[in-house]
Design goal:
The complex is a heterodimer of chains A (204) and B (213). Chain A has 10 helices and no strands. Chain A is mainly alpha-helical and 204 residues long. Chain B is mainly alpha-helical and 213 residues long. The chains are: A mainly alpha (204), B mainly alpha (213).
Chain lengths: 204, 213
């Protein structure tokens, strides 16, 4: 029987590295997903998500079981994102998507699911990925984070405002502006949108 | 009344919450319907990103191995806390630690002598502290009895009722009043033993009669 989070956290607080690694295995994908959406780069996403885990390991003694472990971890994640937003952490790579399309059959460890075969569906997936990533890249870091927390994490505007240390109105405005920008970039009436992507989107 | 701006704001929340829009409202406005479809598609595309951007399963074994390696080289939480405190205190912490941990070899007789001296000084200091401070003896007050004669003025205020007889002294009305009291007057009044003073207070009641009570 798998250990509960509480058991693993208590062991991690007693400096049990294995227990902490088990916790990391449980939540690493969610944290990595947020990081990859936020920085849109596999290497940066790994660096950022691992930094989150290092911070969590340093601070696990302070976890008081007032909230769920993931809520606590998400708070660390958001703070890490915000700290890096202020620094020059991200290496923005405007043209990497083109390179990735050429490396569709490569065995790179950071390779994405959609690039493992050159089937038409995967090419469309790749196009989709590229377009959405580029659309997200056009958002400001605050808008992107607010949108990710609202759309992917399902957080309320109050929770987002609390996490991002801003007002509820600012959080709401950030999400709406992000959606408006994404809509302008990804909607069918956008003129620079490739037709296969629109068809693909209508299939889902 | 349909308001496109308000409807579009509500549509955004409906799409974000994954709820379907009310058909009646959207059927009335083609623009809002198109907006709803566009928003829905936009968010579907971004949702698909989660599936598309997910790394392959083989990625995770390497990811966890790298993470474990980083965690192993990271100072553990308690050590990190100690390190933080140490950095915060800085040189003061180092000096205090040095003072506590430094060992000096001292000959036993010398050490005993120092201890005995310290004890003696301590006892002396305690006893000195317990002794009340010497103060100059308080001189008892010297009582000197000096007889002082205090003159007692015997004074008695005599009030006499003086009537002016309008019939007999109409020619000289002040005569009756200005008559000085004689010895017989004091004897009559029962004022023997009192020495009359130079002052006599008279109360004049106008309009009275000698027989009036």
């Amino acid at each position: 029987m798998a250990d509960s989070d509480t058991e693993l956290i208590k062991r991690a607080q007693a400096q049990d590295l294995d227990a902490f690694c088990l916790l990391a295995e449980r939540y690493a994908r969610r944290i990595h997903l947020l990081a990859s959406h936020y920085c849109q780069n596999t290497q940066d996403a790994e660096d950022l998500s691992q930094e989150v885990w290092l911070k969590a390991y340093q601070a696990v003694q302070t976890f008081r079981f007032d909230s769920s472990f993931y809520t606590w971890l998400r708070r660390i994640t958001i703070n890490t994102f915000l700290n890096h937003r202020r620094s020059n952490f991200f290496r923005w790579r405007g043209n990497t998507t083109v390179v990735q399309l050429l490396q569709i059959d490569s065995d790179d460890s950071g390779e994405l699911v959609g690039s493992r075969s050159a089937s038409p569906e995967n090419i469309y997936n790749k196009l989709l990925f590229e377009n959405v990533v580029n659309a997200l890249a056009e958002l400001t870091p605050s808008q992107r984070l607010a949108f990710l927390l609202r759309h992917y994490e399902g957080m309320s505007y109050d929770e987002i405002a609390n996490a991002m240390n801003c007002s509820t109105g600012t959080a709401k405005k950030g999400v709406w502006r992000a959606i408006a920008k994404l809509r302008a970039r990804l909607s069918p009436d956008s003129h620079d949108e490739p037709e296969p992507l629109i068809d693909l989107a209508s299939e889902y | 009344m349909h308001n496109c701006t308000e409807t579009k704001e509500r549509l955004m929340e409906l799409v974000l919450d994954g709820r379907s829009a009310q058909a009646s409202e959207l059927n009335t406005c083609a623009e809002c319907r198109a907006e709803f479809e566009a928003l829905n598609m936009t968010l579907r595309l971004t949702s698909r990103l989660s599936e598309t951007a997910a790394p392959a399963e083989s990625y995770w074994s390497g990811y966890h191995a790298r993470l474990r390696q980083k965690l192993a080289t990271t100072p553990n939480p308690s050590h990190a806390e100690t390190q933080r405190r140490k950095e915060k205190l800085g040189p003061l912490f180092e000096t205090m630690r040095l003072c506590v941990r430094t060992q000096v070899r001292v000959p036993l007789p010398l050490a005993l002598a120092v201890i005995v001296t310290c004890l003696a000084l301590g006892v002396f200091a305690i006893r000195r502290a317990e002794t009340p401070p010497t103060q100059p003896a308080a001189q008892p007050p010297l009582l000197v009895r000096v007889p002082v004669e205090v003159p007692v003025v015997q004074e008695k205020v005599v009030t006499r009722v003086v009537y002016r007889d309008l019939r007999s002294s109409s020619k000289n009305p002040r005569r009756a009043i200005n008559d000085a009291p004689t010895e017989s007057t004091f004897a009559k009044s029962g004022l023997n033993g009192f020495k009359p003073t130079d002052e006599i207070k008279l109360t004049v009641i106008k309009g009275g009669t000698p027989y009036e009570k």
